[in-house]
From TrEMBL:
HAMAP family: PPase_energized_pump. It comes from the Eukaryota. It is a multi-pass membrane protein. Signal peptide: none annotated. This is H(+)-exporting diphosphatase.
Amino acid sequence: MGEFASSALILAAAAAAVAFAAFLWRAVAAISLDSPKYRTLSASDLGDPENGSGVSPLEASFGKLRTIYADIQAGARAFLKAEYIMCTAFLAAFGAFLFVLVSRLESGWDYKVGFLTALSFVVGGVTSMVAGYLGMMVAVFANARTTICCLERPESRAWTASFNTAFRAGGVMGYALTGVGILTLYALITVYAQIFDVSMGTEQALLLFECVAGFGLGGSSIALFGRVGGGIYTKAADVGADLAGKVCAGIPEDDPRNPATIADNVGDNVGDVAGMGSDLFGSLGEATCAALVIAAQSQDLVGAGWNAILFPLSVTAVGIFCSLAVSFVATDLMPVRREADVERVLKTQLFLSTAAMTAAVYPVTLFLPANLYMGSEGTFANMCATPEAVAASSDCVANAPLAAFACVAAGLWGGCLIGFITEYYTSHSYRPVREVAASTETGAATNIIYGLALGYKSTIVPVGVLASVIYVATRYFSMYGVALAALGMLGTLPTCLSIDVYGPVCDNAGGIAEMSELPESVRDKTDALDAAGNTTAAIGKGFAIGSAALVSLALTAAFVTRTGVLSGGVNMLAPTVFASLLVGSMLPYWFSALTMKSVGLAAMEMVKEVKRQFDTIPGLLEGTPGHGPPDHARCIKISTDASLREMVAPGLLVILSPIVTGTLFGVQSVAGLLAGGLLSGVQLAISASNTGGAWDNAKKYVEKGCLLVGGVVQRKGGECHKAAVVGDTVGDPLKDTSGPALNILMKLMAIVSLVMCDFFMGINEGRGFFNVGAPN
């Protein structure tokens, strides 16, 4: 193959992704909120028996829709502006901090390395912010358009148009984020390659990719603020709106009288779009950086040239083309024409993307040489000269292309399997959630008990799958295989992000329909679209947790490989190592406590504000004609201020823990800290997300009238429903704040450690200040 075949593939994929995102944007933008064709529809045309038989131009509803749409956009912009001002200050301050500390190498001070690492950090952070802003704006642009597409006639056309609008909006973010991500990373590598001469060997290659690793740190740092801040915002608004509306005032969800509804709809996008996008962007950047740092330590891989070195980016490039090739299945080849089609089409899309990626990735593995030695010293020729030597060491990789394919495929299908297992435990189509719903017969307490039990049990199979993927990866390609498995799990990222963003868009569309007082037939469609989105969102959460665990392990592998901890072994019973292992295992619980309490405090403030408005604005609660408008801006400000204030402590906890540990106790203690954080974090994340998801869908199961107790159908307002609402409210911060944010904890601690490893090694030969003259 040509020397620059990988470069051509990467650039072509990035260009195709950005171009396709622009194409999807134009398709969504073609839907006008002022189209006159909907205003001539009668109530009977819309299948709404409650509006009489006269012709209604729906002018009032369309006026409300445009106002609500503008309010949601304004709220989203206000939050992102406030958050990104804080993030910009953080990038500047922590970038300067990195410049100083990373400049200290084992051999002395090198300010060039510090500057380039800090520059990569800033570039990664800015790219993550751009990705989050783009996703947020696309989501709030498409929500009202999805709503009005539900007015299309005939019925089948309404289903097709509304689904396609939401799915294409998700695709804009999915393809733009992935394309811009690999393009920016490739550009950094190309520029830095002019400074570090890779042809001189592994030392220069290692310096290059350690500097590039700052890109992953920047992306993950912004993802931390997006996930934590966004999670606090969305759940403060959601829980506050639900408690104020359903419990205090007894009005339906998304009722236009509730002052917190706009903040709630903004929050759907803050956490599930901007937060999720930044999270997965960070995973992509970190997994790639981990693979590059590990690869840079192999003389065989570096000597094989750019095609082999850039293989991790080539895997992502193949994923872009595969996702793009099958993207038309959902919108054109197998379009949604009725409610039953929605969930099937989304799952088919995910499955086809995974299958296409599996088939297409093998030719790219031929960029790798036939045989590789992944150790830091020696080559395959002199370290793996006999079959016995190959069998004895996982660093000896015979038939590297096939081994790489096995690792990528294991990650691909492992992620898919974890996603569908998560769906089994969180969808009311299956037994576990139905058991949780049935437990509401005896009140909220048994509902809570059943939900917690489900969450704990749901960790068993995903952890088994992750263990199997890790075994396959390390068995066939040493620690480099773990990074490739993580990239494989992220291989269908454009499709996964398209499906993830689809859910919040449909959720917003339903809220807009309710607040605009459009006919019930519109809300029925948006609810059905959203229900399928909830199912696929559960798959997305499982996928995100699984990929975060593999990325964290890959980064930890890069850290221990770079510091030499792996070759010397880690004594887990050494005092500082075992103590760090315990502390690392505790950090996810401390982190979760901070985020959960933050949601509770902000929700209390929101409830009090809504109650104040009901008490002080005449006619608001009663819905009296001509009553004063609710103060949505005040509720948005409460959520924004709370999220920005409360995200600081969890962020400092995650970033400073490895820095303090490495500085005081050395690199072996950092290895213990990272292992503890990963082992407890992945299981707590799965449990929290699945518990909250199960409670949410158990409530929906009751609301649909599917629960029978003593032969009597249980419905909204009954005792079973009240118990289900309690579970759902408790579970909201678990599944949308603490659970997803733990992904960042696992990854960010590891990437901070990797970027700071030279600084740690420069302190008493990696022992830290408190271990002078004593082994770890």
